[in-house]
Amino acid sequence: MASRQAPLGGLAPRCLWLLGAVLVMDVSARPANHSSARERAANREENEMLPPDHLNGVKLEMDGHLNRDFHQEVFLGKDAGGFEEDAGPRRSRRKLMLIFSKVDLNTDRRISAKEMQHWIMEKTAEHFQEAIAESRAHFRAVDPDGDGHVSWDEYKVKFLASKGHDEREVADKIKNKWDLNVDEETQEVLENLKDRWYQADNPPPDLLLTESEFLSFLHPEHSRGMLQFMVKEIIRDLDQDGDKKLSLSEFISLPVGTVENQQGQDVDDGWVRDRKREFEELIDANHDGIVTMAELEDYMDPMNEFSALNEAKQMIAIADENQNHFLEPEEVLKYSEFFTGSKLVDYARSVHEEF
């Protein structure tokens, strides 16, 4: 299984991308397990030795939930999260219009689908570069002897230490093949991680991961083989009848939390509606009501150029009020919450000031 490296400068012939949905959901009202990237970042340090559930620029979380920050991630790139609610509206508008001018390659004050596709590929590449840097730092942390390889036992020591276990004690137990005395949940996580470790270990398998293999372990979107493994895991978790395919009912049947009031019911209904549209319009390519592994892999693949163009068209359609198939400054400002996560007021009056 060859590791797939992200481009480190400019655009590669085959550009990075992942197809996304087009619905906007209130970031303040989410069902369980649907936290935003900002909320997830607060818990990142605690679980830094665990492969992340959330992958920037990837449409589905590792557990099969939709990535609610996807549109902002592929529009803002490494600047995602730079439009906080407490930022000055005028400053945010200027920043958004600066982005607009960068996307608008021919400077005609309109963003076409091709221009948006080009921009999205660049922003997704930025997320890939961040993932490489993050993986490199984690690799050094779990490679104490600096030999350029990480063994499963070395990783296991660091992982359990990050979960509160005494690192030296765990290392001694592993060295002497003693019982680690971990709880059932942790043991299950370790077994799943070891499966992924095997998948990331390129032939000949030796349970020693190089830096590039470790990148595939943490970020399966960087490797074709690991991407296929991730797709199989998602289908395994959602597939109720064992046919290794997904029906609409299976895709929308993830538990969404306990409905305690009408507001909760509205959130749950919106979540189901989002997943239904995602399934029917974006994942089920031949519209036969069934999603195969191949269809899900195409949908999840960040290297899919066709998906990039399709997503660009969908993003334009959200804000294209005059129906001319282009995005104009007024439209981007009016729908700023979709693109940045923040709603910028007085968009009509300020557009000429900021552009």
Labels describing this entry:
355 residues; globular; two-stranded antiparallel ribbon; single chain; disordered N terminus; mainly alpha; two-stranded antiparallel sheet; 2% strand
Write a brief structural summary.
With 355 residues, the protein is mainly α. 52% of the residues lie in helices and 2% in strands. The protein has helices spanning 37-42, 70-76, 89-103, 113-142, 152-162, 167-175, 184-200, 211-218, 224-238, 248-251, 262-283, 293-300, 305-319, 329-334, 336-340, 347-354; strands at 150-151, 208-209, 246-247, 290-291.
What can you see in these coordinates?
- 52% of the residues lie in helices and 2% in strands.
- It has 355 residues and is mostly helical.
- Strands 1-2 form a two-stranded antiparallel ribbon.
- The longest helix is centred in the middle third of the chain and has 30 residues, at 113-142.
- The model is unreliable at 1-35 and 40-46 (pLDDT under 50).
- This is 45 kDa calcium-binding protein.
- Belongs to the CREC family.
- Pfam families: EF-hand_7.
Envelope shape? globular
What amount of the residues lies in strands?
Answer: under 5%
Low-pLDDT sequence parts: 1-35, 40-46
Relative helix content? 40-55%
Tally the helices: 16
Structural class: mainly alpha
Main sheet characteristics: 2 strands, antiparallel
Order of helices and strands: HHHHEHHHEHHEHHEHHHHH
Adjacency order of strands in the biggest sheet: 1-2
Mean pLDDT: 81
Query: What would you call the quaternary organization?
Result: single chain
Q: Between the first and last Cα atoms, what is the distance in angstroms?
A: 48 Å
Q: Based on DSSP secondary structure assignment, what is the total number of beta strands?
A: 4
